[in-house]
Specification:
About 30% of the residues lie in helices and about 30% in strands. With about 110 residues, the protein is an alpha+beta fold. The protein has one domain. The longest helix has 11 residues.
């Protein structure tokens, strides 16, 4: 099981320490980064597009978790769990830079 310890960055993005491939690494929740960067595209399409376009690798650049219970009414997805992505700081920095906006520079 992955450990998680919350910390705060200078851009007010919370950091978590997660276990990845036997090492403890600092990560950023991709949804928090998406919101912070004020990306116009919906989260699910944005993260999948960025992972594919920049060839990020699961369990090396990011971790994925199923998030159960975020939408107890089922919503438009019929109760499917959402996916939560935790990004390494290097991946988060690269995603911030490729947005090419003021928020990306802050992040």
């Amino acid at each position: 099981m992955n450990e998680m310890m919350e910390m705060q960055t200078s851009s007010n993005l919370p950091l978590a320490t997660m276990q990845m491939d036997g090492d403890h690494v600092q990560t950023v929740n991709a949804r928090d980064l998406h919101t912070f960067l004020k990306v116009g595209k919906d989260f699910s399409n944005w993260i999948k597009d960025r992972i594919n376009k920049y060839h990020f690798i699961e369990n090396q650049d990011f971790l994925v978790f199923a998030n159960f219970g975020e939408n107890p009414q089922g919503g438009r997805h019929g109760g499917r769990p959402s996916k939560e992505y935790h990004l390494t700081l290097d991946m988060a920095k690269e995603l911030s830079m490729v947005e090419r906006n003021a928020q990306g520079k802050i992040a």
